[in-house]
Amino acid sequence: MQKRTSVFLTLFLVVQIIALQILKFFPEFVEKYYSLGVYPWISKISRYIFGWVPFSVGDLFYLLIAIVAIRWLYKNVKRLRHNEQVGFFVDILAAVSVVYFMFHVLWGFNYYRLPLHKSLHLESNYTTEQLLETTNR
To answer: Which of 8, 9, 19, 45 has the greatest number of CB atoms lying within 10 Å of its CB?
Structure first.
């Protein structure tokens, strides 16, 4: 990766983390614009592309990412010995930034949506203590 791109992506990771910390306080926004807006389209596209495959394409994707990461580490570990530690870690953080962004755009924002009982307007007529008592039986 070019140095300038790596530095930009690394700084973008910090922006993403801050934005997600703020987004946690606005589940209605996530529900309206992501969960009910953007995500249904993402879901339809991924089902159209991968729905005919009888196994999890995501698992193959994880395997491919692991293989590429191991290969990259194998080829770049020599940079640690040649005083290129900063560039090495910036490249790693840039890759983490891309993966973090893709995870949240493709599915992860759903973690920040309204709880189901709130979006369905269900009343809870039990306490946390009652739930714990039922669970511990």
So the answer is: 9
